UniProtKB/TrEMBL annotation, chain A:
UniProt keywords, alphabetically: ATP-binding, Kinase, Nucleotide-binding, Transferase
Superkingdom of origin: Bacteria
Species assigned in the record: Exiguobacterium indicum
Record PANTHER family: ARGININE KINASE 1-RELATED, ARGININE OR CREATINE KINASE
GO molecular function, a single term: creatine kinase activity
Gene Ontology terms: cellular component: extracellular space
Protein family membership: Belongs to the ATP:guanido phosphotransferase family.
The protein, known as: ATP--guanido phosphotransferase
Protein's UniProt keywords contain RNA-binding: no
Pfam family, one: ATP-gua_Ptrans
Limits of the Phosphagen kinase C-terminal domain: 23-248
InterPro entries assigned: Arg_Kinase (IPR023660), ATP-guanido_PTrfase (IPR000749), ATP-guanido_PTrfase_AS (IPR022415), ATP-guanido_PTrfase_cat (IPR022414), Gln_synth/guanido_kin_cat_dom (IPR014746)
Binding residue positions for ATP: 26-30, 86, 119, 170-174, 201-206
GO biological process terms held by the UniProt record: phosphocreatine biosynthetic process
C-alpha cells in the first residue's frame, strides 16, 4: 500500500489552493495517546509491541476509508519518502515494530508504536489549524471508544514523555519565509518566538539550522490550556509571522527592486538551464522563483507546484521515483532534469491558458 | 568521632536528608551507607512496568501510567520544566462521547418515545417526535 502513497509527491487534497498558501505550505496537528493496556514504548517488549499492532489493526479495521501497513517491514527508501511527504514522523521510520493507518485522502495518519502508542496526525495544505484539529479529534474519539486511554484528572492525557502530557497536542506549520531571511530579520523572530514558548526550526536540506527559507513552527507546551486556547495562541504566532513576512517582501521590492528582480530572474534561469543541481541549491532557487511569482514578476511557480517540487526533489523521494539507489551525482542530474521538466510543463500550461493560440 | 546513624560502626562523613522522610530530620552517614542508600534509591522500580528511577531520570520519559504517581516528585519536576510551570490539564477527556454515538443514543430514545405515543394513540405528539427523528437522522448523515 505504501507504493500507492508514493506515486505522487502531493495527494490530491494537498495539491489544492488553500488559505495563506503564499507563505504557509502546510498545517499539521498531532495528538499523542496511549492505552492503559500496555506499558509505554520505553518499557514495551517485542511481543507486546506486536500485540498492540495486531490489536489496533483488529479494532480499527472497521474505520471506513483507512488502510493499514507495517512500516517496519517497508524498505528504507520507502520509509524515507514517507517522511519526506510528511505522512509519518522520522521516529516512526526508524523504530522497530511500527504500523500506520492512513486515510485514503492522506489527510489522516495514525502512527502505531511511535514514542506513544498512537500518534494521530492530520495534514492539510496552507493554514488550516481549526479544521486540522477538528479532523484529529474525530479520529481521537474513534480510538477512545475502542481503547481504554491513559488519562489523569489533573495531568490529562498521559504520555511517554512529560513534554506531551495534558492535551498531547502539537501543532506545526511549515512556512516559506524568504522575505524575513533576505532582510536578516529571521533570527530576531526565532529568538522572540522561543521566548513566547514556540519552537521554530529550519527545514529541507539544511539540517536543523535556520539558513534555509523553510521553517517549521510548533507549540512547546501541551498542558495548562484547553486545545482551543492552545490553538488560538498558536494561530496568533503564525499570523504575526505571516504579517512580518508580507511586510518584509513589500519592503524588499520597494528598496531593492532591481537587485531583487535580478536575483530572482537569475534563479529562474539557473533552474531552467542547470544540468546538475544539489538539493540545497534547488531549494534556495525554487524559493527565489516562488518569491518572484508572489511579487508578480514574469515567472510562474504556483504554491502547489513549489510544494510538489520540494517533496519530489528530496533524496528519498527522488530515488523512490527512479526505483533504485542513486549516487549523489546521479541525484543531482535527475533533480535538475525533473525541475526543467516541471517548469516547462508549467510554462506550457500558462501559454495554453493565457490564450496565445 | 561521630558514628554513622545507619550502621553505627563507621565514621559519619556526610549529612543527608532522605527523600522518603517527610520530616526535616537529617541523618549522619558513613561513606559505605550513603552509597548503599543511593543505589537502593536509584534502583527503586515502578511496580507496574519495572522502570527504575535511574532509567526515568536518564531518559526523562516514563514507562507506564503508574510511573506518573509512583515517581511523582521526579515526574512533577519534569512536567513543570517542560510545560513552563503549568501543572493542570484543562482540555478534553477520553470519555467524551463522539457526536455519532450521542446522536444514535438520542435516536433510539426518540424512537422509543414515538412507539409509546403511537400506542397511546397520541398522534399529534407522535408527529412532533417523528419530525425530531428526521432531523437527528439528517444530522447523522453529516457526521
Amino acid at each position: 500500500m505504501f507504493e500507492e502513497l508514493l506515486q505522487h509527491p502531493l495527494s490530491e487534497s494537498m495539491n489544492q489552493s488553500s488559505p495563506f498558501d503564499d507563505i504557509v505550505v502546510s498545517t499539521r496537528i498531532r495528538l499523542a495517546r496511549n492505552t492503559t493496556r500496555y506499558p509505554f514504548s520505553t518499557m514495551l517488549s517485542e511481543a507486546q509491541a506486536n500485540a498492540l499492532i495486531e490489536e489496533t489493526e483488529r479494532q480499527l479495521n472497521g474505520m471506513k476509508g483507512f488502510r493499514f501497513g507495517r512500516v517496519d517491514q517497508a524498505d528504507v527508501l520507502t520509509r524515507t519518502a514517507l517522511v519526506e511527504k510528511h505522512l509519518i514522523s522520522p521516529a516512526l521510520a526508524s523504530h522497530p515494530r511500527t504500523g500506520l493507518f492512513i486515510s485514503e485522502d492522506e489527510q489522516i495518519s495514525v502512527m502505531v508504536n511511535e514514542e506513544d502508542h498512537f500518534r494521530i496526525q492530520t495534514l492539510l495544505p496552507g493554514l488550516q489549524l481549526e479544521e486540522a484539529f477538528r479532523i484529529a479529534k474525530q479520529v481521537d474519539r474513534l480510538i477512545s471508544e475502542r481503547f481504554k486511554i491513559a488519562f489523569d484528572d489533573t495531568l490529562g492525557y498521559l504520555t511517554t514523555c512529560p513534554s506531551n502530557v495534558g492535551t498531547g497536542l502539537r501543532a506545526s506549520v511549515m512556512l516559506h519565509l524568504p522575505g524575513l531571511v533576505l532582510t536578516n530579520q529571521i533570527q530576531g523572530y526565532i529568538k522572540h518566538l522561543r521566548q513566547l514558548g514556540f519552537a521554530i526550526r529550519g527545514r529541507y536540506g539544511e539540517g536543523s539550522d535556520a539558513s534555509g527559507r523553510m521553517f517549521q513552527l510548533s507549540n512547546q507546551r501541551t498542558l495548562g490550556a484547553s486545545e482551543d486556547m492552545l490553538i488560538t495562541d498558536y494561530q496568533f504566532a503564525v499570523e504575526a509571522l505571516i504579517e512580518a513576512e508580507q511586510a518584509a517582501r513589500k519592503g524588499l521590492l520597494e528598496m531593492y527592486q532591481e537587485e531583487l528582480e535580478d536575483r530572482l530572474y537569475r534563479s529562474y534561469g539557473i533552474l531552467t538551464s542547470a544540468r546538475l543541481i544539489t538539493a540545497r541549491e534547488a531549494t534556495e532557487r525554487l524559493s527565489d522563483v516562488r518569491l518572484a511569482d508572489s511579487l508578480g514578476l514574469e515567472v510562474n511557480l504556483p504554491p502547489n507546484l513549489f510544494h510538489q517540487l520540494l517533496v519530489s526533489l528530496q533524496t528519498g523521494f527522488l530515488q523512490k521515483h527512479f526505483g533504485k539507489q542513486l549516487t549523489s551525482r546521479e541525484r543531482d542530474i535527475e533533480r535538475a532534469k525533473r525541475i526543467r521538466t516541471m517548469l516547462t510543463e508549467q510554462t506550457n500550461r500558462d501559454h495554453t491558458q493565457g490564450g496565445f493560440a | 568521632m561521630m558514628r554513622c546513624q545507619r550502621c553505627g560502626e563507621r565514621e559519619a562523613i556526610v549529612r543527608v536528608k532522605l527523600p522518603q522522610e517527610s520530616e526535616t530530620d537529617e541523618k549522619f552517614l558513613c561513606s559505605v551507607c550513603v552509597r548503599e542508600l543511593a543505589r537502593e534509591y536509584q534502583g527503586t522500580a515502578c511496580p507496574s512496568c519495572g522502570m527504575t528511577r535511574q532509567q526515568l531520570l536518564h531518559l526523562r520519559k516514563v514507562g507506564c501510567p503508574t510511573c506518573y504517581s509512583f515517581f511523582k516528585d521526579e515526574v512533577d519536576g519534569m512536567v513543570r520544566q517542560f510545560q513552563h510551570g503549568h501543572t493542570q490539564h484543562y482540555g478534553s477527556r477520553p470519555d467524551e462521547e463522539s457526536v455519532e454515538k450521542r446522536l444514535n443514543q438520542q435516536l433510539s430514545r426518540l424512537k422509543e418515545q414515538l412507539n409509546r405515543k403511537i400506542l397511546a394513540e397520541d398522534y399529534e405528539e407522535a408527529e412532533v417526535i417523528k419530525q425530531q427523528i428526521e432531523s437527528v437522522e439528517e444530522d447523522l448523515r453529516h457526521v
